[in-house]
Automatic annotation (TrEMBL):
Enzyme Commission identifier(s): 2.7.13.3
Domain of life: Bacteria
Protein name: histidine kinase
Domain PAC: 16-69
Localisation per UniProt entry: Membrane
Amino acid sequence: MPEFSSELPLPHEPQQGLVERVYRAPGGREIPVLYARSDLRDDHGEPIGAVCVASDITHLKRAEGSLREAKQMAEEANLAKSRFLANMSHELRTPLNAVIGYAEMLMEESDERGLQGSVDELRKIQFAGKHLLGLISDILDLSKIEAGRMDVHLETFDVADMVEAVLGTIRPLADRGHNRVVVVCPASIGFIHADLTKTRQILLNLLSNAVKFTDHGEIRLTASKTLRDGTPAIQFIVADNGIGMTQQQLGKLFQAFSQGDSTTSRRFGGTGLGLAISKAFCDMLGGTIEVKSQLGVGTMFTVRLPYSDPHELSLSRRSGSFSRTVAEAARAAAARAAQLKV
């Protein structure tokens, strides 16, 4: 007859609910058992007995072990995939940059010689090369995030200058779709201490999406300072009056390689990585990104990112202390970079 394992409590112990026990068979084999015990009481609440049930869960434990092993193998395969993409993306960018560079050199030379036909053809090569480079950069960013190799670099920068630099890239794209770009970013917004590259990339992705899905409309970018849970934050709102989205499309908006539907993908192109990367960057920086949209009316993204005041940061460094906000952001980034899955 099976015996109780000497390492575990016996079933007559006063416990309620479900408890796992291990029985040991005469041959020494351990049998995992799910043990349930419930007290029986009379009408006055006095205990009069108990009901005990023991179920053999050997098959359940084996299934759990198989699932754990499969999960570990899947995670290892995903990590290997991310590392492979990161390495391949880097190797692809090097020759592609050379192609773009030579195309630009040939464009200048053709322009000097008055060969306008050649300039137009070379411009197509340059545009296609830059488009491909952008796609590769997105894949590289995504693979770095998944592999936990994306770092946060904090620096002091002027918000208005950063916004103007982003608009320099977006305005030509907006002009092609006959869109008007409206910017509300007061110069008095001043300097902040945050991750410039990721903040700029988030805005570029959101504005690029707004331009892509809007025709003969308006794209509005609003930048302001606010508080988020008592912590200083910079807020960016990107709104458009483009095609908008349904609630079903909003549900999978931030998934990698996902777009609204197959029709959207065929008509507007793209890989569906921009918003996934923006969401990942917001998470890494300790911020948030929210979206509201209505089909046929438009879409509005709201991004809030924590920052440190450069003046307070300077004072804290002189006094030998370090900004609490920056320190917390760095710790959070280090933890999230290792765990983040897009």
